[in-house]
């Protein structure tokens, strides 16, 4: 199973649902997006200034999410490449818990 599909399967059990954002597959809780499959990774809405946000940015290849590619990063979102797919569930769970 694809790593993103595994993430979806795990987070659906916590009340997330699949959707679309920027024309890309997204996980939402209600109408709020928590994760977006983009290029070869997933962007997570972790909240600027949180420990999870800082930890995610420390991962090799991770960066602030800039879906337009025009230098307008979304400060609350961190894009994490597929090489760290083993961390995606933890990050997705953290993004999910921010909405509770």
Task: Tell me what the structure shows.
A six-stranded antiparallel β-sheet has the order 1-2-3-4-6-5, with helices on one face. The chain has one domain. Helix content is 31%, strand content 34%. The model has no long low-confidence stretch (mean pLDDT 95). The chain is of the alpha+beta class. The longest helix has 14 residues, at 85-98. It is globular and about 30 Å long. It has three helices and six strands; from the N terminus they run αββββαββα.
Low-confidence stretches: none
**What's the number of structural domains?**
1
Q: Gyration radius, to the nearest Å?
A: 12 Å
The string of secondary-structure elements, in order, is HEEEEHEEH
Gross geometry: globular
Main beta-sheet strand count, sense and barrel state: 6 strands, antiparallel
What order do the strands of the largest sheet run in, or round the barrel if closed? 1-2-3-4-6-5
Q: Structural class of the secondary structure composition?
A: alpha+beta
- Our measurement of the CA-to-CA distance between the termini, rounded to an integer number of angstroms, reads 29 Å
Q: In what range is the share of β-strand residues?
A: 25-35%
The level of helicity is 25-40%
Q: How confident is the prediction overall: mean pLDDT?
A: 95
Number of helices: 3
What's this model, at a glance?
31% of the residues lie in helices and 34% in strands. With 100 residues, it is an alpha+beta fold. The protein has one domain.
Helix and strand layout, with pairings?
Layout: H1 3-12, E1 17-21, E2 24-29, E3 32-38, E4 41-45, H2 51-57, E5 63-65, E6 74-81, H3 85-98
Antiparallel strand pairs: 1-2, 2-3, 3-4, 4-6, 5-6
Helix pairs in contact: 1-3
